[in-house]
Design a protein that fits this description.
With about 575 residues, the protein is α/β, with parallel strands linked by helices. It is built from 25 helices and 16 strands. The strands form four sheets. A seven-stranded mixed beta sheet has the order 9-8-7-10-11-12-15, sandwiched between helices. It has a five-stranded parallel beta sheet with strand order 2-4-3-5-6, sandwiched between helices. Helix 11 packs across helix 22, helix 15 packs across helix 16 and helix 24 packs across helix 25.
């Protein structure tokens, strides 16, 4: 049997406060242990544990190992209920079969589960806050642990879920799913996380007409009342859990960036839709620069599509250019040419631009093109990099690609629109049109491209190789903020793990199968920069790189059975009582 997931721990760090090896305190006994997903081992409880925790008679006599429990029947029969029965087994199964399981526990399967949330509802998970009871936010949030017991909060208002739009209260499941990815990809302890949904209503007519819908049956609230609702949540979260890192997920177009811009200067927070896509795309470009010899300070980029994803990517590119070249961000933005439905974003069109787009509007005097369609932009700008987030299938035509290849030896082309049918170009066409000189990454998985008896791997810009490591670094350093400098360092760590650096026919980004190792590197980069900038609140962080990575690994939660240590309930911590964590029931 393939040993699958394995992570070594260094015994030196076993006494750390957040250590994840050694015995695990548990104040429950009998059926309470079996019903708790964090403590339950099913048939794998040892003979001693069965005595200590009064489990005799509640289990069949044979003691199994974790590996024996993980079989095809478990995959087939228990995926829907396994996590709430046995958290360790659930995560172990996923990590041992990560490529196979990833689309089952996240996209595309999770989208369908969210759409059917109300009709499939079995038990509550996480914290449900609604705008009509905003005065109860602090009280309701306080039920999930003490100040030191929550490391990570993922919050959504459910308005823009996974390409399926407004799902209202069903957004709780995207918060749950994102936290699962944090645990899978970077070892964030699931018992120290909290999923939250901010229910401000829904504009999904199907949900509003559905008598089974569990959220507020009213249209979405906008304006000042909505802003106060979000602010009340942030203030309560930081008061109750002052060291928690906050991840915003799947907020609507008009709110996502606005909320991030408001709170990023004040708290340690992150928005994967805005920043995560930008970070992983930037990592791909940095890896490509190793091949092309280009420098961030000099590259010219055309961004085709300037919505949330496009401007989020442009933000990260601008910040990286500014950090590397010591330029002002406004100067760095001049190296990025954004093209949207109205053509090139120019200052003369500012009345038609969003706040996010305005930062990338070029001065009209700098525009030398004859036309501002994509071909005209490519001819005028002569970009090193072409990125697509337009959802216009086939937009990167043979003529456009060959025009780009006239001016640069190795064109970097990223058709990122999802799903696959909306990609701006197929990787096989891009390689054919450039005689395999193009460096390509896509927004969805594609098979390798075969050309002239060679096989070229196509990298996928998968946010999951990036945001979990960033969050792990934020948690372990207790950084006060998550500024651009930390994200740039994280992105460099992803780029440094690119397979193409060792094999010119390999991909520009690391595969999700090695994501835990990459997350250690990302976390180390974030922590070191947080310390350098005086943002880290954790003390005694190791300075030596190798020691730091051991320190990080020791605090990464692993899906292994730890021996349970019986403790007295009266003096037990909320963790030992099973009263905190993402799976705590109300």
């Amino acid at each position: 049997m393939d040993p699958g997931f394995k992570q070594e721990k260094h015994p030196f760090w076993g006494e750390l406060k957040l250590s994840t090896s050694g015995r695990l305190e548990c104040a429950l006994s009998g059926l309470a242990v079996l019903r708790h997903p964090y403590f339950n081992k099913g048939s794998a409880f040892t003979a001693k544990e069965r005595t200590d925790f009064e489990l005799h008679g509640l289990l069949p006599p044979h003691v199994q190992t974790l590996q024996e429990q993980e079989d095809d029947l478990a995959k087939n029969s228990f995926m829907n209920s396994m996590r709430v029965q046995n958290e360790v087994l659930f995560y172990r199964l996923i990590l041992d079969h990560l490529k196979e399981m990833f689309p089952i526990i996240y996209t595309p399967t999770e989208g369908e589960a969210i759409e059917k949330y109300s009709s499939l509802f079995r038990r509550p998970e996480g914290c449900f806050l609604n705008i009509d009871d905003a005065d109860r936010i602090e009280t309701d949030l306080s039920k999930f642990g003490l100040a030191e017991e929550v490391d990570l909060i993922v919050v959504s208002d459910g308005e823009q879920i996974l390409g399926i739009g407004d799902q209202g209260v069903g957004g709780i499941l995207i918060s749950v799913a994102k936290l699962m990815l944090y645990t899978i990809c970077s070892g964030v302890n699931p018992a120290r996380t909290l999923p939250v949904v901010l229910d401000a209503g829904t504009n999904n007519e199907d949900l509003l007409k559905d008598p089974l819908y569990l959220g507020l049956p009213k249209s979405r609230v906008r304006g000042e009342k909505y802003d106060n609702f979000v602010d009340s949540f942030i203030q309560a979260a930081k008061k109750l859990y002052p060291k928690a890192y906050i991840h915003f997920e799947d907020f609507g177009l008009q709110n996502a960036r606005r909320i991030l811009d408001r709170y990023q200067p004040k708290i340690a927070c992150f928005n994967d839709d805005v920043q995560g896509t930008g970070c992983v795309t930037l990592a791909g470009i940095m890896a490509a620069n190793h091949i092309t010899g280009n420098k961030m300070a000099d590259i010219r980029v055309v961004m085709f599509g300037a919505g949330t994803a496009g401007t989020g990517i442009a933000d990260q590119l601008r910040d990286a250019i500014a950090v590397e070249s010591k330029k002002d961000p406004s100067e760095a933005a001049k190296q990025i040419w954004c093209v949207d439905k109205i053509g090139v974003l120019l200052e003369s069109k500012k009345d038609k631009l969003t706040n996010a787009q305005l930062k990338f509007a070029q001065e009209d005097k700098n525009w030398k093109g004859d036309s501002d369609d994509l071909l005209g932009v490519i001819k005028a700008v002569k970009p090193h990099v072409l990125i697509g987030t337009s959802t216009k299938p086939g937009a990167f035509t043979e003529e456009i690609v060959k025009e780009m290849a006239k001016h640069v030896e190795r064109p970097v082309i990223f058709p990122l629109s999802n799903p696959t049918r909306l990609h701006e170009a197929k990787p096989e066409d891009l390689m054919k049109w450039t005689d395999c000189k193009a460096l390509v990454a896509t927004g969805s998985p594609f098979p390798p491209v075969k050309h002239n008896r060679k096989e070229y791997e196509i990298a996928e810009c998968n946010n999951s190789v990036c945001f979990p490591g960033i969050g792990l670094g934020a948690i372990l350093s207790r950084t006060k903020l998550m500024p651009a400098e930390l994200l740039v360092e994280a992105t460099k760590a992803v780029a440094a793990a690119a397979p193409v650096l060792k094999d010119p026919q390999a991909g520009l980004l690391p595969d999700v199968s090695v994501v835990r190792d990459v997350s250690v590197d990302i976390a180390a980069a974030v922590i070191k920069k947080a310390v350098e900038l005086g943002l880290a609140q954790e003390t005694d962080i190791p300075e030596d790189d190798a020691v730091l990575k051991d320190w990080i690994r020791e605090q990464m939660w692993d899906p292994v059975y730890r021996e349970l240590l019986r403790v007295d309930e009266e003096n037990a911590s909320p963790h030992a009582k099973g009263e905190v964590g993402s799976n705590r029931t109300h």
